[in-house]
Amino acid sequence: MAIEAAVTSLSLRHGRSVRRAPFVQSWSGRGLFGEFRFHALAEATTPDNDDLCRWALETVHKHLSRPASSLTTGLTRAMQACHRELLQANAEQKSQGRVGLGITCLALQRSDLYLVNNGPGLMYLMKEGGIRRLGPRHGAVQIIGLYEGEIRPYLQHIPIQRGDRLLVSFSTLLRLVTPEGIETILASTPEESIRKLMMVAREEPSFSAFLFHRD
């Protein structure tokens, strides 16, 4: 029997909740391997880049709508396409005008969760009572649009079990709260987790996060 899971999103502007933020997007898609629910988050390396974040998520959405031999192939292709386009645009700018992106995308299908990331986005998984940070090893972060060469996205397949939690957020969260604080957020109920995130990020110009949960 398929496990029913939920993803709650949070987007803030100076502490106020935003309904249609440019740096998050969710949609449903159908491919060769069935139906998926996608949730994507984009974080620019410099502030006031709403249009860039919106463009990046639309680019990911567009490429994930095309046929692919597998979901992971489609996710990788979408991230690489976004990187190539932004890298080319940055090449036409002076160094101080160049901007990079972090993109994290969740793909949910029945009892399986697929995670793809490039850039500095935070990802914390709580599974079977333990909490660990996900992502490439230290020093291996490849920022979209700034990394020289073809990027290799971080990919993770997570079989879903009851009690699992996954937090995806802007990298600024690690400046606002300690790793122990993140553990406290994840160990709370989904509603309390969102409330705590709103409290710690209330002074930020912009902030966004996804909380995946299965209870």
Key terms:
single chain, 215 residues, alpha+beta, Phosphatase 2c, domain 1, 6-stranded antiparallel beta sheet, 5 helices, 28% helix, globular
Specify the biggest β-sheet: 6 strands, antiparallel
Residue share in β-strands: 25-35%
Mean pLDDT comes to: 90
Distance between the termini: 15 Å
Task: Tell me the overall shape.
Answer: globular
Unreliable stretches (pLDDT < 50, length at least 5) are: none
CATH topology: Phosphatase 2c, domain 1
- What class do helices, strands and sheet pairing give? alpha+beta
How are strands sequenced across the largest beta sheet? 2-1-11-10-7-8
Q: If helices are DSSP runs of H or I spanning 4 or more residues, what is the number of helices?
A: 5
**Into how many domains do the coordinates divide?**
1
Q: CATH superfamily, called what?
A: PPM-type phosphatase domain
Order of helix and strand elements from N to C terminus: EEEEHHEEEEEEHHHE
Helical content (DSSP H or I, runs of 4+): 25-40%
